[in-house]
Design brief:
Blueprint: E1 5-9, H1 16-31, E2 38-42, H2 48-55, E3 60-64, H3 81-86, E4 91-94, H4 97-102, H5 107-119, E5 123-128, H6 132-136, H7 140-151, H8 157-160, E6 164-167, H9 181-198, H10 201-206, E7 209-212, H11 220-224, E8 231-234, H12 241-250
Parallel strand pairs: 1-2, 1-8, 2-3, 3-4, 4-5, 5-6, 6-7, 7-8
Bound molecules: phosphoenolpyruvate.
Length: 253
């Protein structure tokens, strides 16, 4: 059975003092609860190293929001997957729509990042999703299929098993619009079937597919109850420890 995971993506938010307060509140909320799903926190990269200490011996894993696909070298401003691994980062979000939109990341570049991430033993959380236009003109299944084929399906089966997928319809990210439980389930089942075709049904059953796009304390339970929704990638609502933990509780099995 797939265990659920909820990852909070802080994006480019929180100065040092606020970031510290939030992580302390998160640890406090976490303390009294049992049977929690896997929890990940993706703070801005500048805090990762410091948070390693804070999250030591807890059930909360560190997640990076990005990294570069080269081993090392003259790439000013970038961080490598091996650096992430060396400080104990477990996951890295890749292919987020904001990276695609504002930093021109292509499917091909994301494919290189996914490969390098696995090579360096940092587990990729691969984001895919369609725009509002693509949803409205009914090309959304094809869009997702192409993203999967271009960035993931060239991996060997062994490598692919390291991947977590996050379906994040771009029209739902940060907009307050959420995919309905039916829309989410429909797409997650489609993705699982594409995995089955590319690999096999055992692999398809093992891969976790998270939903992301305006998940909040009110809609999380219905979304996470869907058969093929294995947790969430949460942006805005992860910036408040109480809201974030309401979402985490909704993912308890
Ligand atoms: C995200 O950025 O991955 C995300 C899902 O954001 P939000 O929850 O704010 O829509």
């Amino acid at each position: 059975m797939r265990n659920k995971v909820v990852i909070g993506n802080w994006k480019m938010n929180k100065d040092n003092e606020d970031a510290l307060s939030l992580i302390i509140e998160i640890l406090y909320q976490n303390k009294s609860l049992i049977d929690l799903p896997e929890i990940g926190i993706a703070p801005p990269a500048i805090y990762l190293s410091h948070f390693t200490e804070k999250l030591k011996n807890t059930n909360i894993y560190l997640v990076s929001q990005n990294a570069y696909f080269k081993d090392n070298g003259a790439f000013t401003g970038e961080i490598s997957f091996s650096m992430l691994n060396s400080i104990g980062v477990k996951y890295c979000i890749l292919g987020h729509s904001e990276r695609r939109q504002f930093f021109n990341e292509t499917d091909a570049e994301i494919a290189l990042k996914v490969k390098q991430s696995i090579k360096c033993k940092v587990l990729p959380v691969f984001c895919c999703g369609e725009s509002k236009d693509q949803r409205q003109n009914d090309s959304y299944f094809n869009v997702i299929k192409t993203q999967l084929e271009n960035s993931l399906f060239k991996l060997s089966k062994e490598d692919f098993l390291n991947v977590t997928i996050a379906y994040e319809p771009v029209w739902a990210i940060g907009t307050g619009l959420t995919a309905s439980a039916n829309q989410a389930q429909e797409m997650h089942a489609f993705i699982r079937n594409e995995i089955k075709k590319a690999y096999n049904s055992e692999v398809a059953e093992e891969i976790r597919i998270l939903y992301g796009g305006s998940v909040n304390a009110k809609n999380a339970e219905e979304l996470f109850a869907c058969n093929d929704v294995d947790g969430g990638l949460v942006g805005g609502s992860s910036l408040n420890a109480i809201d974030f933990f309401e979402i985490i509780k909704a993912a308890r099995s």
